[in-house]
Amino acid sequence: MLLRQYCQIIKQTTNNKSERANSCARGWRLLVIATAFIRPSDGFERFLRTYLQSTALNSDREFQAQGIICLRNLKQTMKYGGRKVPADVAEVTAVLVRRWLGEAAGRYGQV
Asked: How large is the C-alpha radius of gyration of the chain?
C-alpha cells in the first residue's frame, strides 16, 4: 500500500500537466511529509533516492529546495525507521511550516 502511495506522489511531481497551478507544489508537500514519516522498502528506497537526487542536485529545477528537504527526511527515516503511530494534523502542519520557514530563511536571510 505505501509503495502505491509513493508512486502516485512521484507521478504527480513528474511532468505535471494539471490545469491547477499548485498541483505539482501540493505533490511536493506530500512528498516532504511522506519522506518524513513513511519508511519505503529497501528496494524502493534506491529508486526514490535517485528520483529525489535528480531534483535536489539540479539548480534549474523549480522544486530543488523541496527535493533537498525530502532527501534529508528520507535519510532520517531510513536511519530511525518510519512512524509507528500516524501523525495527527497538528504535527504534519508543524512539519510543513517549519520546513517552509527554514527554506525561506535560508533564501531570504531571516523570516
From this structure: 14
pLDDT confidence of residue 45: 95
- The CA distance from 42 to 25, in Å, is 26
Dihedral of the alpha carbons of 58, 59, 64, 67, in degrees to the nearest 10: 30
CB atoms within 10 A of CB 49: 18
pLDDT one-digit tens code per residue, 33-84: 899 889 999 999 999 999 999 999 999 999 999 999 999 999 999 999 887 7
How distant, in Å, are the alpha carbons of 23, 49, 80, 83, 87 from that of 46? 25, 5, 17, 20, 25
Tracing cell 535517485 back to the chain, one arrives at 50
Neighbours of 34 (CB within 10 A): 22
Confidence of residue 107 (pLDDT cuts 50, 70, 90): very low
Nearest in space to 28 (alpha carbons), one of 42, 43, 15, 13: 13
